[in-house]
Specification:
This protein is α/β, with parallel strands linked by helices. It has one domain: Rossmann fold, CATH 3.40.50.450. Helix content is 41%, strand content 17%. It contains 5 helices and 5 strands, in the order E-H-E-H-E-H-E-H-E-H. Strands 2-1-3-4-5 form a 5-stranded parallel beta sheet, with helices on both faces. Strand 3, helix 3 and strand 4 form a beta-alpha-beta unit. Helix 1 packs parallel to helix 5. The mean pLDDT is 91.
Length: 138
């Protein structure tokens, strides 16, 4: 309990699952701290193009990633950013769990083929939350 969780989910790669991210973040925050609440912000745009903001986003997210205890990613929506965050988590030696709806996506071989990541295919939100509960209780 009281783990610092870096939650990764698609922002510019697509916001179809934004409401799901919001519910996952709220679920995690019942017991632990999420460092990346903005991922679940339903007002976030696909194209947040504010000049000069990208470098600050990168720096902030890399600092959060470096300070987290665990990474939980929802990777159903293909996202270059999430892929970069996963590779960075591996480089930093962070425990990393990747969730995806197996009925909706064929997960990238670069993620699925990397034995570092703990993969969690799921079929519904309740199953996802049950697995997250187990992970955070460890």
């Amino acid at each position: 309990m009281n783990k610092k969780v870096y939650f990764a989910g698609s922002i510019r790669g697509g916001r179809a699952d934004a409401a799901l991210y919001q519910r996952i973040i709220a679920f995690i925050e019942q017991t632990d701290m999420v460092l990346t609440e903005q991922v679940g912000d339903l007002t976030r745009s696909l194209k947040e193009l504010v000049p000069g903001q990208d470098q600050q986003i990168y720096q902030d997210d890399m600092a959060r990633l470096a300070s987290c205890d665990i990474v939980i990613a929802e990777a159903t929506a293909p996202s270059l950013g999430v892929g970069y965050e996963l590779a960075s988590a591996e480089r930093l030696g962070k425990e990393t769990h990747v969730f995806y709806r197996s009925s909706d996506v064929s997960l990238s071989a670069m993620i699925k083929g990397d034995s570092y990541f703990k993969l969690h295919p799921y079929t519904n939100e309740e199953e996802l939350k049950q697995e997250i509960s187990k992970i955070l209780a460890e």
